[in-house]
């Protein structure tokens, strides 16, 4: 889904601001449950007498199971009318900020590849939001600091009765400051 709006603000001069955004579906794999399964696999393999280096190699090559969520990533960017905001970039950022992309029809081998990709890249909702924010800072260097950024991730849980939600609303300048001061 894509969305857009424009607003005119009358004062001494007429200011026009526009907002564009998208909502994209994807897959997230739960890191917490996966870590529990890694510990269980490690203990079971050791009980069977498998050497520690072989256990380590196995666990590095074969992702452990976890529960998945249908993730909905949402980004909106509001800025001055004179600036171009690429919806294609927004969609790509969202798609690449979850554990894996989602597809309508897949052959069995492709389905296995998607499941493996998701399980090798487990993410909490807050990880998805953080990744989207970092990618916005990196991929929109031309936008002014007063651009308003809203990033949301909603994960529809598969084993819990609740959904997981994270949101970050900020100016682009604040995000740049935070991200550039992290490391």
Please, could you describe this protein's structure?
The model has no long low-confidence stretch (mean pLDDT 95). The chain has a single domain (2-30, 67-180), classed as Urate Oxidase (Roll). With 183 residues, the chain is α+β, with helices and mostly antiparallel strands. It has helices at residues 31-47, 52-61, 87-95, 108-119, 125-139, 172-180, and strands spanning 2-10, 14-29, 68-80, 100-101, 148-156, 164-171. It is elongated. Strands 1, 2, 3, 4, 5 and 6 form a six-stranded antiparallel sheet that branches.
Short description:
The chain has 183 residues and is of the alpha+beta class. The protein has six helices and six strands.
Helix-strand layout with pairing:
Blueprint (H helix, E strand, L loop, with lengths): L1 E9 L3 E16 L1 H17 L4 H10 L6 E13 L6 H9 L4 E2 L6 H12 L5 H15 L8 E9 L7 E8 H9 L3
Helix pairs in contact: 1-2, 3-5, 5-6
Which features would summarize this protein structure in a list?
183 residues; 39% helix; alpha+beta; 6 helices
The beta-strand count equals 6
Query: What's the number of helices?
Result: 6
Mean pLDDT: 95
According to CATH, the fold-level topology is Urate Oxidase
Total discrete domains? 1
Structural class comes to alpha+beta
